[in-house]
Amino acid sequence: MGKEPSEEENRKSFEYHLKEVSNEEIISILRYREHFQPHAVKEAIREAIRRGIIQSVEDLNREEFKPQPLPPRSLFPVSSQAPQNLAIFKSLCRIFYGFGLLPVILGVFQFLDHNYLFAASAIVLGLLVIVLTYRLEKEKNPLVAKALLFLNVPAIGYALFRITASGNPSTMDFVAAAIIILVLLYTSFYLHKLTTVLSRNNEHS
User: Fold this and answer.
1) What is the model's pLDDT at position 1?
2) Of the four, 21, 23, 50, 145, which is 20 to 30 A from 87 by CA?
3) What CA–CA distance (Å, rounded) separates 172 from 4?
């Protein structure tokens, strides 16, 4: 086994890492400095002074840099760093694009089976999800997030209808439907929460 890195090696590694992070991440370390190792805080302060974020250690007494408690654990975690929230937001939007494609593909197959009314309904629903997701990604409007949230009702209703209409659904049918419904609900609520946070940040910026 190799030897453990020394404190000096850890310090240099962290110092190098700090040069690659954004100003917001440096500010986050300063705000939550009571929860970091002393050498990490010292290097973050040095980097903050180098970048002009603060002029001296005394600036840490300002209201914006006062030590803060760690945010409580949540089922829908929100970072103190806007870029992280934005990255998660975009990932959730991509998931919703996938959810929107599913009824469109289903509608195409139903159209080929001459179930025209059902095919049209599925395609319209899928395209509506895709359009709303696109608008949400561009505008970050909480009202659009609410609209996507309400679209869970017909989606879940259809999933339950398909299970009951199949006559003798297996346990795996119920498990698969439950997983899809839970993922859809979790993604919808998480996306709504992040949209609210990002919208609030844009108003204050």
Assistant:
1) 44
2) 50
3) 48
CA distances from 189 to 75, 76, 102, 142, 157 (A): 10, 8, 20, 11, 18
**Cα(9)–Cα(12) distance, integer angstroms:** 5
The Cα 186–Cα 38 span in angstroms is 38
User: Using one digit for the tens of pLDDT, what is the confidence trace for 45-86?
Assistant: 888 898 898 898 888 888 888 887 766 777 888 876 677 788
Token duo for residue 119: 């095919």
The answer to whether 11 and 39 are in contact (CB under 8 A) is yes
Tokens matching residue 174:
């119920």
Nearest CA among 110, 108, 155 for reference residue 129: 155
pLDDT (0 to 100) of residue 12: 56
**3-state SS, residue 120:** helix
Distance CA 158, CA 195 (A): 27
